[in-house]
Model the fold of this input.
Amino acid sequence: MTDTPSLPEGYEISTDPDRLDVDRVHQWLSTDAYWAQGRPRDKQEQAIAGSLNFGVYDTISGAQVAYARVITDRATFAWLCDVYVDRSGRGKNIGTAMVGAVRDHLEAFGVRRVLLATADAHGVYAKLGFAPLTDPDRWMALLFA
Done:
């Protein structure tokens, strides 16, 4: 496994759901994330409630600057999704450090497989050990309209 990158000075990661700035997370995802544009607020709240959530916060202002969500049974499988870094925090290693912390958190549960989907960040995830599926023909999906 690759080393977990450190957050820059002045930032911290938390899985405390009470710290999440749900308004900000919904704004980011519903207006600026290609995979979640237009997602209704109630759906975002349901997603948060049913997931393991990670936030990155500025230690001085307390403002949330990044978010990631994991759907998991905390035993065998996890789906990493809704990874987002505020535009003001990009280029500072915040996203890579957050995903590394997610990976380490899930490994501690004994989770054997973490999946994700990305259209444009393959290089970021590859630095943390993610790789394309070795047998994609074994995987299937059920999509509802």
Summary: The chain is about 30% helix and 20% strand. The mean pLDDT is 95. Residues 55 and 67 are 5 Å apart (CA to CA).
